[in-house]
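Collaborator request, handled under Task 6.
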Amino acid sequence: MSTTRLNMVLLILVVLCALGAVNSNHRARRLFIELEAEQKRFRDLDIEWGQLQLEQSTWAGHARIEKLAREKLEMLSPPTGQIILVEVQGGSTAAPSAASKLD
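Structure tokens returned to the collaborator:
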């Protein structure tokens, strides 16, 4: 009778181990599917980020800003004789302030 009891205990242990292995395998597959979904989401967001950067550079382009300034604000470029370049230490040039243009 003790052999039968031992066999039953071993059978129960084997069944529990098999169920644990199935559960572990299922969980690993589910986590892998979640990982793949998150990686796809990352790729999609990366593509969208690139598109947004391109759109931002388009909206902030010098030609577009100049066109809007001319059309909506009715601004004009100053005549060439009124443009003064000022030499700054380090060799670069900078436009003078508005106050110095009035003098």
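The cover message to the collaborator said: "Residues 2-78 form one domain. The longest strand covers residues 86-87. Please let us know whether this matches your experimental observations."
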